[in-house]
Structure formats: structure tokens, C-alpha cells
Amino acid sequence: MEHIRTPKVENVRLVDRISSKKAALGTLYLTATHVIFVENAPDTRKETWILHSQISTIEKQATTATGCPLLIRCKNFQLLQLIIPQERDCHDVYLSLVRLARPVKYEELYCFSFNPKLDKEEREQGWMLIDLGEEYRRMGLPNNYWQLSDVNRDYRVCDSYPTDLYVPRSATAHIIVGSSKFRSRRRFPALSYYYRENHASICRSSQPLSGFSARCLEDEQMLQAIRKANPGSDFIYVVDTRPKLNAMANRAAGKGYENEDNYSNIKFQFIGIENIHVMRNSLQKMLEVCELKSPSMSDFLWGLENSGWLRHIKAILDAGIFIAKAVSEEGASVLVHCSDGWDRTAQVCSVASLLLDPHYRTLKGFMVLIEKDWISFGHKFNHRYGNLDGDPKEISPVIDQFIECVWQLMEQFPCAFEFNERFLIHIQHHIYSCQFGNFLCNSQKERQELKIQERTHSSWAHLWKNRADYLNPLFRADHSQTRGALRLPTAPCSFTHKFWSGMYNRFEKGLQPRQSVTDYLMAVKEESQQLEEELAALGERLEKIQKVQLNRTEVKSNKQCEPSKHSGFSTSDNSTANTPQDYSGNVKSFPSRSPSQGDEDSALILTQDNLKSSDPDLSANSDQESGVEDLSCRSPSGGERAPSEDSGKDRDSDEAVFLTA
Amino acid sequence: MEFSELIRTGQAQAELLRGPEAPPLRGTLCVTGHHLLLSPGPQATPDLWLLLLRSVDSIEKRVAGDSGTITLRCKDLRVLQLDIEGVEATLNIARSIEALSSLESVITSFPFFYRPKGLRLGDAWHFHPPERYYKRVARETNAWRLSEANEDFSLCPSYPRAVIVPRAVDDDALARSARFRQGGRFPVLSYHHAPSRTVLLRSSQPLTGPQKRRCAEDEALLRAVLAGSRPGARGFIVDTRSAQTAKQARMTGGGTEAKAAYLGWKRLHRPLERGRPLQESFVHLVEACGDLEQSMDHWLSRLAGCRWLAHVKEALSTACLAAQGMEREGACILVHGAEGTDSTLLVTSLAQLILDPSSRTMAGFQELVEREWIQAGHPFQLRCAHSAFSHAHPKHEAPTFLLFLDCVWQLGRQFPLSLEFGEGMLLALFDHAYASPFGTFLCNSEQERCLCEVRTRTHSLWSGLNQLKEQRKLRNPLYVPNPLALWPSVEPQSLRLWQGLFLRWTRPPEPSEAAWEKVWQIVTDQEKTEGSQPTVSASEPQL
């Protein structure tokens, strides 16, 4: 690869993020697709793999006596601090990575070289796993009210929409084309979700080009058609997901929002979700809080509040809840838009669908949901997640927020989802990894032009193949609470929203619960299944034996057969093996005689580590697989701080003497 | 005294509102000596609603027209509203509840009248005291002995009759050491960590005073501790006050161990919040949790502002430090603050839970609470007189025990398979510590309990909890014995608000109940298949 200035640097130190005194010595390799750090320690040879596409920023810091520090921040929230002995090597690595992390053409992305050894047929089947046509049929479409429109064939009307769209039967091509001309980027109102129980629907579009007084007859007819497609209600909600001020500012640019006077029977509603720039800064601030060294509880909580992140998450959830209630309780259809209708609109429509329809809370249904509301409706994956070098102002964690909303709901409704947290984390990983073609480009049209399906693999097939890892053992599909729409508390309050350390601190295993309830229960389930099978087999055998023995008189004494006890999770109790952190907050208090003592325990972690994923990148990176992490390094009360003991004045209790003695 | 003097109105018609999640209840309201009863009408007597008056924390009455409203805020953080017909009846009932819920006398309290079916008086009272723990220590080392020097509570009124002390120290020396320690709480063994042959001790502060007094027997006692431990062991004194506070305590006769006097012992200061500030922290947190309308930002600042989670973090860190000192450094640890009855017990009991696998079982945990809190003289009656809703100015109230339960909950969240008891057990202990039909948490010390004859005249909570019907609620179905120490993370990202307690009555219970049922179902399914297998294989003849 022409961009790699130096393929290998030796004697590089990987600094522990928390206690800078700990560092692993090893060799750094640059390959066409990954940065790899291999530790020298002969017994472990621990490897850390980072995909170039995961690299968010690279920072070269001032050279010190020990070498030249290089800080690599990743999009999956990993943070790597390397110290490279020679300044020149560091510069070479830096320049190489800057280029490698910012590809300029799609062809440079990993998915075009990634080859999981599947034949052509298997690859094609993988792409057929998620079928949106089938999804609309599942909703009960087409029917008397909705039909498949070919108006966007060859992307003639709107190039960021899919070709296959459902619109009200009464909306003629003339109305649709007219309406599209009155909408930003011609994103006219189209069906996102149809609620079979009462004919109400969720439609989506971009903002109208209303300015201060413009109107459009076809657009008004379009909204009326949507209303008529729901015989159960005489009005529709129009939900503008922007803060009112933002929407009003847009009027000066000839855009804006619907005037209730011009549209018959609409109820217009603002739901203030901030724009992509606010969200980008908010995430940045929250990550800074996560990076704080030994913060106090208040530092952390104030920082979290100051970032506004959870407030934004709540705003998105609240919008989704509003729409889901309008549809299920009021039986009214809802048209959702923001500015262009591809960020906030996608978030809100998918949250509402997830609340309404249990299908989207299954593994496959969730994939369908992302395919429908995000991929097909032209969410700009390339711009938002910076797959190709582009405008940094376009980058924003829009789908990350949606994924977190799902996690927040999973925490509130532990039995309502077929999948577990790991599934969400792996999806987030693949949105940025560019290992598969699904999340490439900004629209369906671009993907088609690039022949993505012929040249890359589908991540859905990959995730589906490993679905056993993603199941939630607590899922109760048939329970009254999880059937149908999720019943949310009347007043969604702030307490239910939690900081998601499983995502944002996922590479710091020491911060996570040390035992996984999910894995344990899955192992138990698997084992009882095995035992049941064994039982059945033994029963059959017993029957046979009894038949044979009809002729025999003597039954020999029984021999206890060794039960295959706890094979599935005999290791799970070892997963508690951890070492104490630095609780002393005072470097001097325990002049440790025991750095080696912890090692036997960490070794346990290594051996018991269940390599869950068959995916090399995830297994090297993501939380449940990186078992080699040393847990004994967190300092809860500030190693840097002055020792709190007897700060000098109380002479009679200054016991440094005893330490050295 | 007759209860009837305090009951002004026998009964009234009322409607009870129990929060947004439960349907209202209508019927006849009735005040008895210990209970508030609501009987929904003659046809439905089994659906009697009952509230222990002792659990009422604060009461608020309002009258309008010819009816009134009483809001009862309970010690378990529940808020109940009673709409009562008749102004006079409302006022009378309110006054009766006020009088009856704040009775100070122990021996007229409900535990002395509670006689449940299926339980025998006197059961389970003797199965936890220090004697039992000493048997275990004696198996592990012979450096310690059980002393009955406090048989008549003369050495230390807040200690039990028997305590575990170094074998090398005689009862006279104990008496002298007791005189040198506040409240007579001389250093006693709290826990013996067999693998490292080190011990955890607790005491109160030494009475050094402004003259920096010393006590040879007290010093000898601590020397004997080191001598009885592994050879070359050092000691750490974890003082749960700041160095500044400890120094100031000299002015009032207290103080802390002088380094020159206690060879081999090094002092560490880990200030833990106690007393009124801790109570206020609790009150503010509960207030914040009651405000359902607040914005996200407001909520996070209030959560930070009330500092409860900061106290959790500090308590866990200090306990980890003590445990680490023993397990990793092979050092003996003495923990004390001032009186040695609050933050001291918090640290010693948590350290044991971290180190000792047997204290994480159902029986072991009960024993730990009995030995390290009840017998160790945590003044439950004073500390738990009021919960978070009382308008009265806090005198001796402090939620130290609740802080302990919260820390245990955090440990259970980080190690979900390692505790045999579940959240239900912790909630039950919280409820019973503040108001209970059982006698276990009555009084402030063993001496007081003896005077009141608690053991013979009330039922033990442990026998109540150990009934089979309670087990599903209290046990952790995921438990797998774990022989290792549990080192929790004390980073802010790892600590969470205990929603199960602080939001118990405000969030809908169904989702977590459904999850709990499912966990039980998975685990019992497995036990069923496992249980049935050997029967088949046992009947399989050898061919």
C-alpha cells in the first residue's frame, strides 16, 4: 500500500488509559486495513486490532524523554495511547494513519477487500435475508388504502428515496410530483409504517418550501390523501421534530413548516430535537467526561448533565412515544418531518415503530427496521459516519442515538426484546467498520450505482449467522406486556434514563459488571435443552433395555452415570476473577509487594474468556472478547492528588517511617 | 397506658389512593393500636388493607367542605392518600395516627403483640451471635479467644456479652482498654481472613484528649493482634474521619492513635459522611425522586447535588481499601471513627462481603447483619426513628444501614451471580429496619434488648424471612458460589442509582416482575431436568 510509510515499529508502548504508569511494550504494525499492536509479553502476546475505518482522530503530542506519544480515538469509543521511541517513526505512523483513516474513494474501504470465504451464491443469499417488499406485505400492504407507487422509478422524482414506496391510493402521480416540488430535496410524504389494527399510519417527508406564505395545492391534497387513507380519524398530526425557533428560521430561506390554515384537518406539533451539530458537540462533551481520570461522582454527573446527551436521548424517545400514542391510542395518522427528513425523522419514525410493533423488537425485525427507516430512506451514512474523507461538520452520531434509545427501552422492558445489548453494540461497530456494504453511501441510488450487492457482503447475514450470541434469554414474546404496543408510563420521567457505560466505556472492562446475566442464562438454557435431549435419549434406551430384559431375570446393580453437570457454565463463576483496583487513592499507603499476586487471577480471565464472536475485529476489540485487559489499574480517588493522610502537620501520625522500615 | 386513649375516632368512610399504578380502594377506615385498616366492605373482607402505624413517617391533613384528605408518607418511601368523609373524622383520625405512630416505648410496640401463625417464639434468636462466629475463628487460628468480660455490659454497654479478643490479652487489660475508648468500645475482632492470616478489628476512637493520653493495655492489645497474625504483619488503622476532624476530636476528649504509641500500625484517614449530613443527603435524594415532572438536566444536577452516590462511592472505596490491605498486603486492619457504631460497621461489614464467600450466602448474610450491625451495637432505634419524609429536625437519625444496603446492591449489580440473596432481601431489610412486626431491629444495643426481653417476647425477623414462602422473593436465582474476592469498580460510571428502592413506588413494577419470573423459570426448568436425570440413569441397569 502506497500510504504506509512504515509497516512496523518496534518497542512501542501502549499506555493504559487510566494509570499512565502501566504500559505494555510491543510492536506496532500497519497493514492495508488494520493497525495492530502485539505485546511482547511471551505468555499472552496480546493483540489489539484497530480497523482504519474506526479511527476517528489521531493526535500527535509533544515528544517527551520517553518518546513521542500518539493518541488514537476510535468511532467505537476505544482510545489508544501509544508512545513511539523515535520521533521520525511516530511522524511516519501519524502521516500514514491520517491518510489511511480518510479514504477518498469507496474502493479503498475494507468491504471491497473483505473476503469471508463465501461463494457467490451464499453472498447473494445473504443480501436477500432482509426483504423490504416482504416487510410491507407483513404490514398488510397493499390494501384498499395504500398502494405501491412506481413514481420514483429510476429515482426520477427523488434521488435520495428508494424506488419502491407506498402512498395513499388517492394520491395520483400528479399529486405526488407536485407535492415533491414543494418539499426540500423533493422528499414527498411517503409511508413509513402502517398500523394494521386501526389503519393509522406513520408517514415521513422533508420540510415544505412554504417560506412565509407559499402554498401548494398538490401538497395539501397529498396530506388530505393520507388522512383519507385512515377512515378511523378525521385529522392527521403533522409533527415537526425541530425546535420551533429552528423551523421558523428556515422560513427566511423559503422553507419552513405547514400552516394549519392551509391544510384541512391537520394538527401541527413541534417536538424540539436539536440538529446534528448540537448532537455532535454533545457527544464530544460526554466522551470528554468518560475520559476524565478518576472523576468524583459530582464531576461525572455534572459533566453528564452539561453534555446534554441524556436530554437529547429523552427528546428523541419522547417524540417516538408521542407518535406511537397518537397512532395506537388516538388512531390518528402522523406525518413526521424535520428539515431534510433523513436524520431526526429517521430516529423518531423508527422509535415509534419499535414501540408499536413487536416484530421490530425481534432480531430480524430490528434489522428490517434499520433497513427500512435508515438505509432505504436515504440516511446519509457516508456523511454522518465519515466513511470517506469529507466535511467534518456533516458528521453526527444520529444512528448512535437511535441505538441508545433502543437500549434505554431494553433497560425499561427487559422482556420485550428478542435481542440483547451485544447485538446493538455489534451493529454500532459495523455501521462504522465498513466491513460490509450495507451502511455505505448516502442513498439507495448511490449504492446501486456502486453495485454494492455484487461487490460486498451483507452485515445482516453475518449477524444472523451468529444470532445465538445476540439472544436475550429474558425475551417473552407471548407476555401481555410485550405483545402489541409497549405500554409506557403516562408521564415519561427522567429517572429511567441511564448512562450507557456498556457502550461508551465498553473497552474498559473494569467498569462493567464482571458477570454477565445474559451469558449465564443462555448457558443454563442451552444446558437444560441438552439435558432434556439426553433425558429423551436415555428414556428411549431404557425402553429398549426393558424390552431386552423381559427375558432376563437378574438386574444388575445400577451404576450411577456421570451427569454432565454444568458443562455449559462451569466457567462462569470464574468470570468474577478480578483484581482490586487502586482503592487507596494514596500511592504510598500500600507500597505494593504484590504486583505479581494479581496475575494468577488475570490469567483466569484469559482462559475462561469465551470468544463469542467469530469476527476477528470484534473479537479483538469489543468488550466481551477483550479479556486480556488488566483490571487492576483504576484509581478511584485520584492517584495524582495529595495524600489525604495527615497532610504533614500532625507530625505524630506521619508514618512514612513505617513504610520504608 | 391504653391505646384507646389515643384513638379519637374508631372509624370513618374513606378512599385510599396508592399512587398512579394501583387502583383506589374504598371502604371503612379503622384505627387500632398498631394498625390502620381499610375494609372494602362487608362482602370483601379478605381484601383487608393494613398499614403498620409505626411505618408512618409523616402525616399531612387538609380539610375542605365536609371531607378531608390525609397524606401519609411512609418510612418505606411510599406515599398514600386517604380521602375521608367528615371533617371531624379526618382530624381525629389524623391525630390518632400522629400519636400512635410516634410512640417511644419499645415494649408496647407491635412486635410484642405480633404472633404469626407458623412461627414459634424464641426461634432463630440464638443462631447468629458472636459465639457462633468464634467457633469458626477457633477452627482457623488459636490466637483469639472468646471473652465474657462484658457479661453484665459494664465494660461496654453497646457491645454484646461476648466478644472475640487476642488470646494474649486478659480481661483486666480489656477493662483498661475499654476505659480508654469512647463508650468502652475497645478493639475486638470483626473478621478473620484465613487465607492471609490477617484480621479485621473495630473499635471507637481512643480518648487521647488534648493531653495526648496513652493507655499501655490498649497499645498492648494492638501489639498482640500483630503478634497473633502472620509473622511480620503490619497494621493499618482506617480512621473514617478526616485527619482534621480526628485531630479536633482531641478537644472534646477523643482523638486518634499516636504513631509513636502503636508500633507497627499506620494510620489512614478516609472521611465518610455520617449523622445529619447523611440524613439530609437521603432526604434530598428522596425529594428529587418524588418529582416526576423535572427535566433531564434538573434531575442530574439534583442527583449530583444530594451526594448520595458520592457517599456510596466513598463507603465502597474505603471497604475495598480495608479488604485490599488484608488480602493483598497481608496487613491487619483496625477500623474506627468516633463512636464506632456507624461508619465503622459500614466498612467492616462491606469488607467481609468483599472477602468472605460465606457471608454472601443467605444464611451468611443474615449472620453478618446480626453480628456486625445488631450485636455490634448500631443504634437502630435512634438511627431509623424517621425516614426521609419527617419534618422533624433530625436528631440522631442517619441512614447508615441503608447506605450499607445500597453498597451491597451495587456489589450485586456488578457481580450478579455471586450473592445468594437478591434485591428483595435488601428491600426487606430496609423496610424492617425502619418499621417491623419483628423484634430483630428493636432497641439500640444488646443490653437494651435484654432489658426489654426482646428475645423471648418478640419474633425474630430471620425466622420470618426463612419461611419457605418468602424464599422466591428474597433469593437470587442466579447464584453460583464464588470462592474469590469481589473487587467492585468504584468509578462513577459503574455506580447507579438504586431504582428498585428509591423509585420502588413511582415506576410501574410489571416489567421487572416479568423479568424476575422469567429468570426463575429458566433456572427452575434447568433444575427440573437436572433433578430428573439421575433417577433415570440410576434405574439403568448395567449390561
TrEMBL record, chain A:
It is found in: Cytoplasm; Endomembrane system. Residues 553-565, 642-654 have a biased composition (Basic and acidic residues). Residues 567-597 have a biased composition (Polar residues). GO terms for molecular function: phosphatidylinositol-3,5-bisphosphate phosphatase activity; phosphatidylinositol-3-phosphate phosphatase activity. It is a peripheral membrane protein. Substrate binds at residues 275-276, 338-344. One of its GO terms (cellular component) is cytoplasm. Residues 307-351 form the Tyrosine specific protein phosphatases domain. GO terms for biological process: phosphatidylinositol dephosphorylation. The keyword Lipid metabolism applies. The keyword Metal-binding does not apply. The active site is at 338 (phosphocysteine intermediate). Its main location: cytoplasm. PANTHER family: MYOTUBULARIN-RELATED, MYOTUBULARIN-RELATED PROTEIN 7. Belongs to the protein-tyrosine phosphatase family. Non-receptor class myotubularin subfamily. This is Phosphatidylinositol-3-phosphate phosphatase MTMR7. It comes from Vicugna pacos (Alpaca). The lineage of its organism: Eukaryota, Metazoa, Chordata, Craniata, Vertebrata. The gene is MTMR7.
From TrEMBL, chain B:
CDD domains: PTP-MTMR9. GO terms for biological process: negative regulation of autophagy; phosphatidylinositol dephosphorylation. InterPro entries: Myotubularin, Myotubularin-like_Pase_dom, PH-like_dom_sf, Prot-tyrosine_phosphatase-like. Gene3D superfamilies: Pleckstrin-homology domain (PH domain)/Phosphotyrosine-binding domain (PTB). GO terms for cellular component: cytoplasm. GO terms for molecular function: protein phosphatase binding. Residues 124-502 form the Myotubularin phosphatase domain. Belongs to the protein-tyrosine phosphatase family. Non-receptor class myotubularin subfamily. This is Myotubularin-related protein 9-like isoform X1. It comes from Vicugna pacos (Alpaca).
